[in-house]
Amino acid sequence: MTSGKKDIDRPLGRDAKPSRKSRGRSFGKGSILLGLAAVAVVGVSLAVSLRERPFRTPVPVAVTEPVETTTVAETKPEATSVRTGAPDAAIVKVTPQESEPASGNGVIVIRDPSAMGQHPRLAHLPDRALIEESEAGPLPVRQPGGRRPFDVYARSWSGARGARIAVVIGGLGLSQTTTQRAIEALGPEVTLAFAPAGNSLSRWMQTARKAGHEIILQVPMEPFGYPNENPGRNTLTVDSGEGQNLSRLRWALSRITNYTGVMNYMGGRFTADEGALEPVMEELSKRGLMYLDDGTSARSKAQDLASSLSVPFAAADVLIDPIGGNRRPAPADILKKLDELERIARAKGYAIGTGSAFDETIDTVAGWANEVAGRGIEIVPISAVAFDPEAR
Where are the annotated segments for Disordered (predicted)? Predict the structure, then answer.
């Protein structure tokens, strides 16, 4: 009876305490298990501490994270609307890495750049598969499977319908102060062009890419009036011959990495000579690079050669900061040129403007870029408005 009374008075859900003998037996088993676990942890910790750490030394060249690539390749996301490559191409439904032309209606099906590009956090690191080591230094090269620097290093954009403007600001790397100012003041949508004769180019490339900019490389080419008008060191000239010009081109190409293409610096005479320009275009095609014509020479053969040699191509519509007798552009004149760019973009869907890294240009473009979206225009990287023969 006494035992039964205790059971009745006990709160619901609370079991009777085990006997002292039972508790002692359970505690002994737990102690053995805890002891074995402790020995295992100590053993594993010792093995890890003695093992060489694989990431102790940073690797200067890295490939896009395999996890990202595997995820894209295996999950096969649904088709999305994309507009890239040819500026006049219609927006179409595509799946990653699809590039087959639609049958019958002439619509160009364009690859989704997100399937080939870098993760934004790795944009400052060269893709090892796109680097060729040479006597000149690291050179960009296309992979046998078709991946190109033009694809991988391109900055993404919305793909939305509407007017688009690409602005390219060049001459970076020559002045440390100006280069830093341009990277910090200009929005990431603005494309930056580096001069191969600049200083600390690898550092500035990484800084620009971390800030989100697409970058291109300026190549000095012979103008009319050369050498009185001199673009600088290792200028490509009509009379130098193919071998010397290719050597000078490769020197320029090796100065930085992670760029989508090249742009002529001066070069009115050189770009007008098909025989001199053709080997250059062949080299760019081999290396998977775009060519941007600054648009200052009506005699340039670049567009025809780019089309025949499968080189992505773009040509500037407006020089936004022409310099006068005082050798400095006026902000009011720059704004007029930017207004002209807007008119062209509304008329044909896109426009391209080029300028130099003057303080006046940087400040004016930075202010204008903050306002232009409100007028229904998107600032895009230069790769977004380049015609790509391989996207057909």
Answer: 1-25
Encoded tokens for 71: 């995820």
Determine, yes or no, domain membership for 74: no
pLDDT digits (tens, 9 = 90+) for 209-256: 999 999 999 999 999 999 999 999 999 999 999 999 999 999 999 999
Q: Which residue has the tokens 């890295």?
A: 62
Q: Does the residue 123 lie in any domain? A: no
Q: Between these two residues, 229 and 5, which has the higher pLDDT value?
A: 229
Domain containing 273 equals 134-391
One-letter amino acid identity for 146? G
What is the pTM (predicted TM-score) of this model?
0.72
Position 301 in a domain: yes
Structure tokens at 35: 């002891």
Domain for residue 341, yes or no? yes
Confidence class of residue 32 from pLDDT cuts 50, 70 and 90? low
* 167 φ/ψ sector (left φ>0, alpha ψ -120 to 50, else beta): beta
pLDDT at 33: 53
pLDDT digits (tens, 9 = 90+) for 139-185: 999 998 889 999 999 999 999 989 999 999 999 999 999 999 999 99
**CATH code for the domain of 301:** 3.20.20.370
Domain total in the chain: 1
pLDDT in tens, 349-366: 999 999 999 999 999 999
